[in-house]
Amino acid sequence: MNVQIVGISLVHNEDVFVERALRNVAAFCDRIHVADHMSTDRTPEILGRLAEEYDHLDVVRVSHTGEPHGLVAGYAGTDTWVLGLDGDELYDPERLVGFREELQAGAYGELFQLRSNALNCVGLDRARRVASGYLAPPSRSITKLWNCAAFDSWTGCFRQYMHDGEIAFRPGYDRHRTAHLGESHTWDESRLRCLHVCFLRRSSLSPNGDEPRLSPIELGGKRRLAPLALARVLDRVRPSVPVGSEWKRDKYRRGELVTKDASPFL
């Protein structure tokens, strides 16, 4: 089979981890589309440097979180897997080599969406190269892979790429054709695993590192961001104003706190 893998990344003020996040999937993806949502820290500088280094990585500036869907809409109906990558998601690059071979051989072709293992990080010791956090499962998995061969089109109004809209599925597929590899693979054996650093400081402009950001869906639904919500996203409110996501704290901190080797991700 001639299966390709395309990365799509929506980022905003991610200058702490974005370079590592993109480098870790550079060999896994045949193409990477990065949408920068009005970053004001060093993120644009970092993305520009990476775009010069990798000829299969392109960067666009967007003003609304639904715009990036247009970057992947053209892959509908093709033998393409789309990997959704946020600036706080660090994959294991060596494990991805074997997983890429599986996808190219046709594995999981009967699915619309694939999710897998994650460690939702609340602490990262770079010197010792260890991370502490909560595993998914039992926490919610954030790993996102969509099979474009499952549908002929995906159109509509989007709060964020690959969300909402109307999907014209091909026979045998629907939204429920989803598998969670974490239900059959442990963190230590999984080929698709992600260090999710959502509870750590992601931007040099952010005063706090323990407050997970509100997602575009939490911030404004299908509407453009309200002034206060936009101010929070841009890190322009007083530190005393609570801006963290209760939803993420509830979904990503389930089970016991564990410590894992972080060296493969760094």
The structural class is alpha/beta
**Helicity, in percent?**
10-25%
Task: Compute the separation of the termini in Å.
Answer: 32 Å
Strand order of the largest sheet: 3-2-1-4-9-6-12
Task: Describe the protein's architecture and organization.
By secondary structure, this protein is α/β, with parallel strands linked by helices. The protein has a single domain (4-200, 254-265), classed as Spore Coat Polysaccharide Biosynthesis Protein SpsA, Chain A (Alpha-Beta Complex), CATH 3.90.550. It is built from 7 helices and 14 strands. The strands form 3 sheets. It has a 7-stranded mixed beta sheet. Strands 5-13-7-8-14 form a 5-stranded mixed beta sheet. Strands 10-11 form a two-stranded antiparallel ribbon. Residues 221-243 have low confidence and may be disordered.
List the helices and strands and how they pair.
Layout: E1 4-11, H1 18-25, E2 31-37, H2 43-53, E3 57-62, H3 69-72, E4 80-86, E5 89-91, H4 93-104, E6 113-115, E7 117-125, E8 130-136, E9 144-147, E10 151-155, E11 166-169, E12 178-180, E13 193-196, H5 216-220, H6 227-233, H7 246-252, E14 258-261
Parallel strand pairs: 1-2, 1-4, 2-3, 6-12, 7-13
Antiparallel strand pairs: 4-9, 5-13, 6-9, 7-8, 8-14, 10-11
Helix pairs in contact: 1-2
Relevant terms:
28% strand; globular; single chain; alpha/beta; Spore Coat Polysaccharide Biosynthesis Protein SpsA, Chain A; 14 strands; 266 residues; five-stranded mixed beta sheet; 7 helices; seven-stranded mixed beta sheet
Short synopsis of the structure:
The chain has helices spanning 18-25, 43-53, 69-72, 93-104, 216-220, 227-233, 246-252; strands at residues 4-11, 31-37, 57-62, 80-86, 89-91, 113-115, 117-125, 130-136, 144-147, 151-155, 166-169, 178-180, 193-196, 258-261. It is α/β, with parallel strands linked by helices and 266 residues long.
